[in-house]
């Protein structure tokens, strides 16, 4: 797990804590104002720490990603932004409606974040078009043995146009090598190998 996934896991965990705490508040405010206030008083500092950490991690993750945000992300952000004032005003006025609405905002944002996460994974798997990057790396490194069309077969090199390897398995062969083919681990970036493996798919059947 790289540092980025660790950060976003921590971010989601904080969000979950926050949502659970909000749910407790909703239950308590429906019980009576005293238990609501008591709980708020007890968890004030913890909640502040969770909130600040959550925001800091969120900002770091946003900066790291640097753009290309999914529409769901902006909706999520807007829903969270709406939930905060609702929660603050609701707590002050002991308004069941506002506190519940605030909880629903955070709950929805948490749900959206989970959906967005799955969506990103799906998109990564589906998008396998040969990129210019893949073509260039292939020409620079692989043609001596495999040829432009993948059929050359120098020194027993496999015919890539008839290869039945999946993209994932091809990545494995490129990374770890096999037989007379040397491994590219350490010589190529992960994303280059990924682009290569995607390009190989387009050589098939030609
Ligand atoms: C020095 C020659 C050489 C070079 C350069 C080379 N390969 Fe290979 N490649 C081979 C040989 C030999 C095999 C067969 C390995 C074996 O014996 O299983 C092979 C097998 C493969 C396979 C497995 C195909 C299958 O269906 O089993 C893939 C995928 C592959 N090469 C991709 C690449 C890519 C991508 C590059 C460029 C980054 C590359 N190779 C560079 C020699 C080479």
Detailed description of the structure:
By secondary structure, the protein is mainly α. It folds into two domains: 3-126; 132-203, Cytochrome c-like domain (Cytochrome Bc1 Complex, Chain D, domain 2, Orthogonal Bundle), CATH 1.10.760. Helices cover 75% and strands 0% of the residues. It is built from eight helices and no strands. It has helices spanning 3-31, 33-65, 71-93, 96-126, 132-141, 143-146, 167-176, 190-203. Helix 7 (167-176) packs across helix 8 (190-203). The mean pLDDT is 88. The structure holds heme C. The site of heme C has 22 residues, from helix 6, helix 7 and helix 8.
Question: Quick recap of the structure?
Answer:
This protein is mostly helical and 206 residues long. It contains eight helices and no strands. The site of heme C has 22 residues, from helix 6, helix 7 and helix 8.
- Shape assignment: rod-shaped
The mean pLDDT is 88
- Helix coverage percent of residues? over 70%
Q: What's the SSE pattern?
A: HHHHHHHH
Q: Which band does the percent of strand residues land in?
A: under 5%
> What is the count of distinct domains?
2
What small-molecule ligands were found? heme C
Give a short account of the largest sheet.
none
What are the segments in which pLDDT stays under 50 over at least 5 consecutive residues? none
How far apart the termini lie comes to 37 Å
